[in-house]
Amino acid sequence: MCGIAGWVAFGRDLGAERSAVEAMTRTMACRGPDAGGTWYGGPVALGHRRLAVIDIAGGAQPMLAEENGQVTAALSYSGEIYGFDELRARLVSAGHTFRTRSDTEVVLRACLEWGEDVTRHLTGMFAFALWDARGQELLLIRDRLGVKPLYYYPTPDGVLFGSEPKAILAHPEARARLTSDGLRELMTWVNTPGHAIFDGMRQVRPGHVVRVARGGITERAYWELPARPHEDDLDTTIGRVRDLLGSSVAGQTVADVPLCSLLSGGLDSSSVAALAVGALRDRGEDPLTCFSVGFSAAGSGPGFVTGPRGGDDSAYAAELARHIGARHEDLTLDAKLLSDPAARAAVLRARDLPQGLADMDTSLYLLFKAIRQRSTVALSGEGADELFGGYPWFHDENAVRAETFPWMYMAGVAAAGGPAFLDPALPERLSLDAYRADRYAEAVAAVPVLPGEAEEDRRMRKVGHLFLTRFLPMLLERKDRMSMAVGLEVRVPFLDHALVEYVFNVPWSMKTFDGREKSLLRAAMAPELPDSVLTRKKEPYPTIADPAYDQLLKGRLGALMDDTGAPVRALMDEKSAAEAYAAVRKASPEELRFLRVGFESLLKINDWMRDYRVELAE
């Protein structure tokens, strides 16, 4: 995995602008700690930071294709192409020659062979920039599900781009400016595809190609979730799911560096680990190492909780590891580290935005940091809940039928106006209800229609599509940022596009044939997993319930309230903020934990506005 950055400015020679490009590229060092490079070709400059996973000695970037001593194409690439050996063999048959064993060179040669249609031949997670020197144009391409990020920022004479916003913001022509639309996106969490919060900045949408030429910038979709009739019976469907997932996991266990699996002992991560063990065994490779996370309390507090289960992942994970023959290590994190200012600052820097899951982001960052000391690539079960219907929202009739995003309905977000400390007039002034409703209508309009589909299946297809296109991207962004902040590559086998296309079109009655969530996945993996995992109910990632943590944040809130120059004060109403702060000051430990959600968000917004020098548009 890597980080990319670059700049196109038609009519200029960017060889004279090296300092700006090098500054952009340096911001991606966390994503690529092993090597870095830049290339300048008249109106284009490409930057790259490398995390070496395949062909450690080769694969340096930016990578060039040359003909008669002239550069014909240049590539800055981030990601992994699975099954690239087969694609390489096809290209050799077509007359291409290779200098390395890397998947990067396979992507470059595939681009030369098929041009923009290269996407039809790529399976994996990827985001890359290809400069066509002959046609004098740039292609920005992102994988189908949006596992890997890619941002761009149009300029009067071209474009800036990078794996993360920080790469673009390092350029002197980019501004960290927040307009009303950016505020709406932050406060509603609707996650509009392509939106990047900062004014003028965009994301390349999943499954899209952005073309930058002298005539302007155009964008087109090369892949969307298809609606197809499902003609397999239940037994065939179960077998097909097992085969598709097994093939995906096997392809994603290929690496020239230490590989491990994240393991909570739940159905999703256990399925990936079990299949990975089998794939490695079949190839005669070393056993898989699995990591689960545990937490110690800070001081005398109760530490982390996840609701009813109280955080007992390690026992399930250890049992699963014994069952499949994997090595298992339980990583214990000290809860007090979550309040460490350095860790919190690292998380904000990784996210570039004040969005996220508060202490859960910090604990995930610390977990990945610990894993990175032992491994370079990790397998994850991300995406299974969205694909197989694992969340409670799928099974709540009111949430399914609500005219809003199901997760907003059940969380009460549909009626919320943001943290209590912010100006209570903001929701009305920004028309947040209308904004949320418009984004929901757009999302529903994008759902593919299957003629003649039963009403329940049509309704659940809509819900599944909303989760895969609006909810899942938020989790993928979180996992990408927290892992790449420490140079750890996380792979997501459940998001192989062939598996996604197949399961998306399975009728809801089959997905829940035994009356439980994720029935289809459970049945497909039954031969591989112990009963303890198969019968375990889904549990959320643990959140902290330590009074010491709450008190520390309360202290930071007091400092903010005393700071009349705090940037976030521009979004606050003094009277309502004083009332909210009074409620926090007199709150019991139990009440404080509940109120923390609001003021922790406020603290994060303030840190973001300060550190990124965010400008609020008039």
UniProtKB/TrEMBL annotation:
The record marks 382 as: Important for beta-aspartyl-AMP intermediate formation. GO terms for cellular component: cytosol. Residues 2-215 form the Glutamine amidotransferase type-2 domain. It is an enzyme of class 6 (ligase). One of its GO terms (molecular function) is ATP binding. Pathway: Amino-acid biosynthesis; L-asparagine biosynthesis; L-asparagine from L-aspartate (L-Gln route): step 1/1. The keyword Amino-acid biosynthesis applies. This is asparagine synthase (glutamine-hydrolyzing).
